[in-house]
Structure formats: C-alpha cells, structure tokens
Amino acid sequence: MPSPPTGLPTASGSSRSLDYTSASASEASSRPAGSSARATEVVSASSVSSRAGASSARARRRARRNGSGRRLFAFDRRLGVRLVAGADEAGRGCLAGPLVAAGVLFDYDALTTRELRSLSLLNDSKQHTAQAREELYPLVLSSAARVVVVSRCVRGIDARGLHKTNLAALRDALRGVTRDVVGDVLCLVDGFSVAEFERPQRAIVDGDATSAAIAAASIVAKVTRDRYMRHADIQHPGWSFAEHVGYSTPVHREAILRQGVSPLHRMSFQSLAYQQLAL
User: Fold this and answer.
1) Residues 244 and 176 in one domain
2) DSSP E strand boundaries for the chain
3) Which residues, listed in sequence order, are joined to residue 69 by a DSSP beta bridge?
4) Which residues share a beta bridge with 152?
5) What is the mean pLDDT of residues 65-94?
6) 193 and 258: one domain?
7) N or C: which end of the chain has fewer CB within 10 A?
C-alpha cells in the first residue's frame, strides 16, 4: 500500500499525519473552616463531590467500553479482510446546498488500541449532536489510513438528477480512497451498490449504523457539508442556512416564501415551498 497523502481532505486527503489531542482541566478550591461543624460540612460536601466525580468518570469509561464503535468495528473485522473502505453521503434530502460524499479507508492491521478506544462512540452521524460529530471528526481523520471527500454542486444535481448524482459521488469517493492501493480492499456502501466500480463491494442496509468504515464516512461527509452551509449562510443571508443546513424545515420554507430562492436551491425538487413562487 502506498504512503497515504497528507493534509486535510478537500478533494482527497489523508488523516494519518494529523495530530488531535484533547485536554481536560479540573478545578480545586479550599476554604477555611470557621468551626468544627463548618469543617465537617466542607469535608462532607467535598466527599460527595469527589464521589460524584468518580461515578461520572466510571460512567464515561463504561460508555466507551460499551460504545457503538466497538460493535461497528467488530462488524468490519468479521469481514475477514485487512483493508475496509466505507462510503456515505450527506445532504441527499436537502432543498439547498451540495451533496457531499466521503470515503474512509481503515487498515485493520495498523489500527492501534488507542485509536479504537478514541472511536468507541462512533456511530451513524444522525445519532450524534453537531458537537459530538465535530469531536469525532478529527479522531476519524487521525485513525483512518485515507479519507476522501467528494462534492456535487446544486446545478449538477438539477441537471443529472439526485439519484444518479448520489451514486456517482459514492463511486468517486470509493475510487479516490482506494486509488493505487495494492491488494484486496472490500468496499462498503450505505444502502446502494454503485455501477462501473472495479473493486469488490457490498451494499449494507443501515450501513452507517452497522459498519465502522461507513459510519466514519458519514461523520466526515456530514461535518464537511455542515461547515460549508454555515459559511454559505454568510454569503447568502436571509435563508438561515447555518440553522437548517439546507433541509426543509418550517424556518427554511418560510424564508423561501418570503424572499424567493438562492443560487444554492435545488430547483429540480418538487417542494411545496416552491409551488407558490413565480419561478
């Protein structure tokens, strides 16, 4: 297998060179005891706080041990191959914004115990809050052998159709993440098989909640697209893109009725939000 490319994923990129560390801080305070009763109260409160902190830490450790990531990685390992690539998309059901697909390649001979533990909470991106996805994102980048991101613009979606665009983006993400890789790679796709693809592949129903490689791709695709839509909110104010990231919400539909469509809106969609506009 060739040395993976370096840097953050734009069109394609690697994650092994990235260093992500997290720091935790603890605060301690002390106060003089004015009396033996006061001292007893302080000690008692400190003891309760200490026990609560220890209990919380134990709960976090249990969550990591029993986390969804352990189940997802176990599924991939049972496939019996060293290299597993997963692909997933974000933004397929949106009224506005691009469709983003990601491919993630895991080398199961190279993954360390520390990396596996760091991804113990890995799961389908829809099962996480935005903050949790942001926290998992750099952990995926630092653990994967390779990461590729593919974006398809609104005009392309309107011209080719959503389904064809989606399948082509998933195929290109898998091609990119496995390009020049020597040896067998099993490619997993969330829900669909892709045509005109040269490597062995499997369509996994609910793959982002089943396979670690697909779940990791779902995190990368979702975080990448959400960041793009937050930036688009600055360039195209008035549609609240940072809030709904292009999905059909009451706020979004109201904005369309109030001020029409933006250059980011997909006009090929048969949305009720468009029907009252003179387009």
Assistant:
1) no
2) 12-13, 83-90, 99-107, 146-152, 185-190, 201-204
3) none
4) 99
5) 91
6) no
7) C
For 48-61, the pLDDT digits (tens) are 445 555 555 454 44
Distance between CA atoms of residues 175 and 15, nearest Å: 17
Half-sphere exposure of 192 (CA within 13 A, CB side): 16
Helical (H) or strand (E) element with 9: none
217 plus 137 within the same structural domain: yes
CATH number where 98 lies: 3.30.420.10
- Give the mean model confidence (pLDDT) for residues 231-237: 96
In this prediction the pTM is 0.75
Which of 194, 210, 227 represents a domain boundary (last residue)? Answer: 227
Number of compact structural domains in the chain = 2
The Cα 62–Cα 181 span in angstroms is: 37
- Per the listing, tokens 């990685």 go with 73
> pLDDT tens digit string along 190-220?
988 999 999 999 999 999 999 999 999 999 9
Residues 6+ apart with CB under 8 A from 184: 81, 82, 83, 200
